[in-house]
Amino acid sequence: MTKGRVEPLTVDDLVVAVRHSAPVDLSALLLTAAGRVRDAKDFVFYNQPDGAGVRLMHGGQPGIALALAAIPPDVAHVRIVVSLDGPGGFDGAVPEVRVSDATGNTRYEYAVEGLHDESVVIAVDFDRDGPRWYLRAVGHGYPADLGELVRGHGVEVGGQTMPDVYHGTTVLDPGQDLALSDIRKSELSLVKMALGWDPVRVQGPKGLRELEIDLDASALLYVGDQLVDTVYYQQLTSKDGHIRHSGDNLTGEGTGDNEVISVDLARLPSAVTAVVFVITSYAGHTFERINNAFWRLVDGAGNAELARSNLRGGGAHTGMVVAKVYREGGAWRLQSIGQPIQAGHPVETISQVASYL
């Protein structure tokens, strides 16, 4: 697996193990859709090795056993955290995550790269979507210690709890709305909306062949309910120059992000009230045929992932209104929308976006 990749799970009983050159501790957080624990029992670690459907394994390589069918229905995510058992940071060393089934067969492997002075990393998430579970490679290095990370999810540590926000990667369900300052400790000036997906292989007369899926990320700029500009594959820069598109990816080839839209929030004209992000399927391929599609919001200054949502769920639609960044009281907020539409070109989304302004 590579960072950002999402894989559907076909078995309920799994073991997550981590191999690293230095001693590490594994822990797990059972989270609601809001990214919070229900109570202290949802933090599984060396002093509390058992949770609902999650168990810390002792002896040998650090590991966590999951019985997904036993996880309570109000738990939407299981977050696996790796922390160094000693001073210092990862300093470029790469922890290797392996996910195996109950018989010991390796199902997924993920090398968490790009870590520097961080001593804690959110390695992978297990995300629930209705009756199904998905594995997501996160690889988000946390700048503070384990105590602050778990307090940010609502766990009381040392008699203190953090405010009801999480400063780090947040999984957003459709309809969730939060201030950008709530998912980042300082005010954001540059954000990037990234889109990723994988090519699809279909059976043809000569065997399997790749079906070229062309998804397009676009940004619509609004003053109130009036559209004033559009950034997409045929217009890669906004008129004021403060929103830029990385260019058209026609197939989904390549790992990680396939298309990126950068938004300089600090320099956008003060009249702009909202930037709405939409995704369309140029050739009319419906989303039910698309593999591992996701969008994510990234801090443009440090490239830390702030929020993400998966474009899974299929459906016979060719577009989606994924999110909007909008001003409220002088501050920027993010709303995850995640609503399917029928559109092969960003112009076709305009009438369908109006109800989300």
Write structural notes for this entry.
The chain has helices at 146-152, 350-353, and strands at residues 6-8, 13-19, 24-31, 43-44, 50-51, 54-57, 63-67, 77-84, 96-101, 106-111, 120-129, 132-142, 170-171, 177-179, 190-198, 200-204, 207-211, 215-223, 226-231, 243-245, 259-264, 274-281, 291-299, 305-310, 319-328, 331-341. It is mainly β. The chain folds into 2 domains: 6-161, Lipoxygenase-1 (Sandwich), CATH 2.60.60; 190-356, Lipoxygenase-1 (Sandwich). It has a 6-stranded antiparallel β-sheet with strand order 1-12-11-8-3-4, with helices on one face. Strands 5-6-7-2-9-10 form a 6-stranded antiparallel β-sheet, with no helix packed on it. It is globular, with a radius of gyration of 21 Å. The model is unreliable at 160-168 (pLDDT under 50). InterPro entries: Stress/Tellurium_Resist (IPR051324), TerD (IPR003325). It comes from Nocardia stercoris. Pfam families: TerD. Residues 22-151, 171-344 form the TerD domain.
